[in-house]
C-alpha cells in the first residue's frame, strides 16, 4: 500500500522524477503516454538524433494533471561520450511561462532564463559525465536508459536536476524480462533505481529494450507510470514473473474482461479431480497481476508457493490496467471487490476447481478488498488478510503522514501546517466541502472516487458480515501498516464477525513488501538485496489454507 498523504507530482523543479523514451538515430518521434494512478493524463513525443558530434533529444508534450504542463520544446544535448552539453526549455507550467537554457562547460552548469516572470540565474559544479534531468519532462530518461546498459547492481550514476542540484542514482537490481504484446513477446531489462535526494530517497523502476532504448518508467510512491504509447494499450503487459504452471486466461467481469494468469499445481488433483483455489489480490498503487512493486512480484511468488502446496491460483491485472478492460479512474474499493467476485464465479465453473474450496488472499488494500468480497459472497471458503489495516482509511492516512513527518526535520509550525492541510483535504474529499485554500493540483490528485472510497472504508463495519475462517498475516517490521493493526483486526473479527476461526501470524524480520528487512522503513526498500517473499510468510499461508480446506466437506 502506498503512502496516501498528498504530494505534488509534477511541479517542474521540485524533488525527483518520472520518465520517457526515444528511438534510434534520425527516426520519427515516438509517443509516450503518462498515467497517474492508472488514468492517462498526458503525452510526450520524443525524437533522438545521433551524429558524430553526439546525441540530441528533443521533446514536446502536455500533461493535464495534477499540475498542468505544456512543453513547447525541450532539448537535451550530449557529446559523443555522453558528456552533458546543454539543455533548453520553452514551456508553460501551471499557467506560468518557463524559459530556460543550461550550458555545461568545464565542470560547471550555468542556467539562465525566467519562470513565472521571475529571472533564473544559477550555477552548479557538475560531474563531467552527469546526466541532465528536468523534473516533469520525461525525455530526461532517454539518456539514463542508454547509460544504464552494462551497469551492474550497486553501480551509480550522477544526475543534475536542472536548476537545483546534482544527485546520485543508484542501481538496486537489474533483471531480464519479457513484455507480452498480445501473443508476441519483447525482451526487456528492468532496472530498480534509487534516486538519492536531499529530501529522502525515491525508488523507481525503469524498463528499457536490450538496445538501451527507454520503454517506460514507474514511480510507485507517486502512482506514476510512463509507457511507450504503442505498449500502453490493454493488450500489452510486462511479464515480470512466471511460474512453471502459469497460463494466460481471460475472466469475464461487469461489461469487460480481466486479463489474468492461472497457476496450476504440477501435482495430481486430490480425489475427485478438483483443486482448491485461491484468488490473489494486490494493494493500492500495484495494478499488475504479479503484484510487482519495487522489484518484488509478491503475488506471482505467492502463486508459485501455493501451487507447490497443491492449490490452483488466479491473479489478474486490475480493471483498466495491463490486459484488463474497464476504467481505472472511476474504480473504487467496492468495484475491486466485485471484480474478485467475478473471478470467483469464473473459477467455480471450471471442472478442475472445487467450488466449495475457493479462498481469497489479499495484501494491504487487497486485504480490505478480500474482506469486502467475502462479506458479499458467502461462497468464498476462507480469507487470508496480509498486512491489512484495522483503522479507517482516513485514520490510516494520517497515521502514515505522522510517521513520514517523524522522519523529517521540520519546525513544529510547519509540521502542524502539513497535518492541518491533510485533514482539510480528507474532510473535503469525504464531504465535497472545504476546498478553499487547497492548491488546485492537490485537489486534482485527491478528489477521486478511489481516494474517497479509501478514506471512507471502515473494516469494522465490513467484518461484521464475514463468516468465513480468517487468517491475519503481518510483517513485524511493517512501517506502512504497523504490525499492531493485525491484532486489532483479529480482535474486531472475534468480537464482531460470525467467523468461527480467527488466527494471527506475525512474521519476524519482514517488512510491508513481505521480504526480509532491517528497519522496515520505505527508505530502505531500494537497497534490500533479498527480493523474495519470506518463506515464513508463504509457509504460514500454505499451512493454514491446507488445514482450512481439509475441514470443508
Brief descriptors of the model:
553 residues; alpha+beta; 8-stranded mixed β-sheet; 24% helix; 36% strand; disordered N terminus
* Percent range of helical residues: 10-25%
Radius of gyration: 24 Å
Molecular shape: globular
Number of E-state strands: 26
β-strand percent reads 35-45%
Largest sheet: 16 strands, mixed
How many alpha or pi helices? 11
Describe the structure.
With 553 residues, the protein is an alpha+beta fold. It is built from 11 helices and 26 strands. It has helices spanning 141-148, 298-308, 333-348, 365-376, 393-406, 412-431, 440-446, 449-456, 459-463, 484-496, 535-550, and strands at 30-36, 39-51, 54-63, 69-78, 84-93, 96-105, 108-115, 118-125, 131-133, 156-161, 165-181, 184-197, 200-209, 214-219, 224-228, 236-239, 246-252, 257-263, 275-281, 292-293, 296-297, 312-316, 353-363, 382-386, 470-475, 502-507. The strands form 3 sheets. It has a 16-stranded mixed beta sheet that branches. A hairpin with a 3-residue loop joins strand 10 (156-161) and strand 11 (165-181). It is globular. 50% of the residues are buried. Residues 1-26 have low confidence and may be disordered.
Short description:
With 553 residues, the protein is of the alpha+beta class. Helix content is 24%, strand content 36%.
List the helices and strands and how they pair.
Blueprint: E1 30-36, E2 39-51, E3 54-63, E4 69-78, E5 84-93, E6 96-105, E7 108-115, E8 118-125, E9 131-133, H1 141-148, E10 156-161, E11 165-181, E12 184-197, E13 200-209, E14 214-219, E15 224-228, E16 236-239, E17 246-252, E18 257-263, E19 275-281, E20 292-293, E21 296-297, H2 298-308, E22 312-316, H3 333-348, E23 353-363, H4 365-376, E24 382-386, H5 393-406, H6 412-431, H7 440-446, H8 449-456, H9 459-463, E25 470-475, H10 484-496, E26 502-507, H11 535-550
Helix pairs in contact: 3-4, 5-6, 5-8
Amino acid at each position: 500500500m502506498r503512502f496516501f498523504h498528498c504530494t505534488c507530482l509534477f511541479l517542474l523543479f521540485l524533488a525527483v522524477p518520472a520518465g520517457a523514451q526515444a528511438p534510434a538515430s534520425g527516426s520519427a518521434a515516438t509517443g509516450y503516454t503518462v498515467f497517474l494512478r492508472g488514468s492517462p493524463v498526458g503525452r510526450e513525443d520524443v525524437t533522438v538524433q545521433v551524429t558524430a558530434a553526439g546525441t540530441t533529444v528533443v521533446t514536446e508534450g502536455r500533461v493535464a494533471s495534477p499540475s498542468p504542463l505544456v512543453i513547447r520544446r525541450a532539448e537535451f544535448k550530449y557529446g559523443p561520450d555522453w558528456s552533458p552539453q546543454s539543455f533548453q526549455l520553452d514551456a508553460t507550467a501551471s499557467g506560468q511561462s518557463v524559459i530556460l537554457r543550461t550550458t555545461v562547460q568545464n565542470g560547471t552548469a550555468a542556467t539562465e532564463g525566467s519562470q513565472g516572470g521571475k529571472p533564473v540565474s544559477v550555477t552548479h559544479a557538475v560531474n563531467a559525465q552527469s546526466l541532465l534531468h528536468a523534473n516533469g519532462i520525461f525525455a530526461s530518461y532517454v539518456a539514463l536508459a542508454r547509460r544504464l546498459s552494462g551497469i551492474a547492481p550497486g553501480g551509480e550514476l550522477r544526475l543534475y536536476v536542472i536548476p537545483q542540484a546534482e544527485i546520485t542514482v543508484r542501481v538496486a537490481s537489474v533483471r531480464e524480462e519479457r513484455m507480452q504484446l498480445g501473443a508476441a513477446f519483447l525482451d526487456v531489462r528492468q532496472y530498480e533505481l534509487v534516486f538519492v535526494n536531499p529530501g529522502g530517497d525515491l525508488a523507481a523502476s525503469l524498463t528499457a529494450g536490450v538496445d538501451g532504448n527507454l520503454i517506460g518508467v514507474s514511480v510507485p510512491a507517486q502512482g506514476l507510470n510512463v509507457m511507450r504509447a504503442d505498449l500502453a494499450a490493454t493488450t500489452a503487459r510486462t511479464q515480470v514473473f512466471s511460474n512453471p504452471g502459469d497460463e494466460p486466461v481471460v475472466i469475464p467481469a461487469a461489461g469487460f474482461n480481466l486479463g489474468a494468469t492461472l497457476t496450476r499445481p504440477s501435482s495430481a488433483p486430490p480425489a475427485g479431480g478438483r483443486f482448491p483455489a485461491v484468488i490473489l489480490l494486490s494493494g493500492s498503487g500495484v495494478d499488475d497481476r504479479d503484484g510487482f512493486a519495487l522489484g518484488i512480484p509478491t503475488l506471482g511468488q505467492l502463486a508459485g508457493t501455493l501451487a507447490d502446496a497443491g492449490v490452483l491460483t488466479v491473479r489478474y491485472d486490475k480493471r483498466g490496467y495491463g490486459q484488463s478492460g474497464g476504467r481505472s479512474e472511476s474504480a473504487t474499493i467496492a468495484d475491486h471487490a466485485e471484480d474478485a467476485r467475478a473471478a470467483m464465479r469464473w473459477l467455480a465453473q471450471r471442472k478442475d476447481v472445487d467450488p466449495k474450496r475457493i479462498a481469497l488472499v489479499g495484501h494491504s488494500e487487497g486485504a480490505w478488498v478480500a474482506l469486502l468480497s467475502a462479506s458479499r459472497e458467502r461462497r468464498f471458503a476462507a480469507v487470508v488478510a496480509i498486512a491489512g489495516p484495522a483503522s479507517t482509511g482516513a485514520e490510516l492516512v494520517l497515521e502514515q503522514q505522522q510517521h513520514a513527518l517523524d522522519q523529517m526535520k521540520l519546525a513544529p509550525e510547519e509540521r502542524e501546517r502539513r497535518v492541518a492541510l491533510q485533514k482539510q483535504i480528507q474532510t473535503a474529499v469525504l464531504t465535497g466541502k472545504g476546498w478553499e485554500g487547497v492548491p488546485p493540483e492537490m485537489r486534482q490528485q485527491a478528489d477521486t472516487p478511489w481516494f474517497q472510497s479509501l478514506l471512507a472504508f471502515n473494516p469494522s463495519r465490513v467484518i461484521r458480515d464475514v463468516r468465513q475462517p480468517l487468517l491475519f498475516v503481518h510483517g513485524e517490521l511493517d512501517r506502512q501498516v504497523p504490525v499492531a493493526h493485525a491484532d486489532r483486526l483479529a480482535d474486531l473479527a472475534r468480537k464482531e464477525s460470525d467467523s468461527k476461526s480467527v488466527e494471527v501470524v506475525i512474521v519476524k524480520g519482514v517488512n510491508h513488501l513481505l521480504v526480509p528487512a532491517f528497519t522496515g522503513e520505505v527508505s530502505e526498500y531500494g537497497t534490500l538485496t533479498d527480493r523474495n517473499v519470506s518463506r515464513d510468510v508463504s509457509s504460514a499461508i500454505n499451512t493454514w489454507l491446507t488445514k482450512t480446506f481439509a475441514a470443508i466437506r
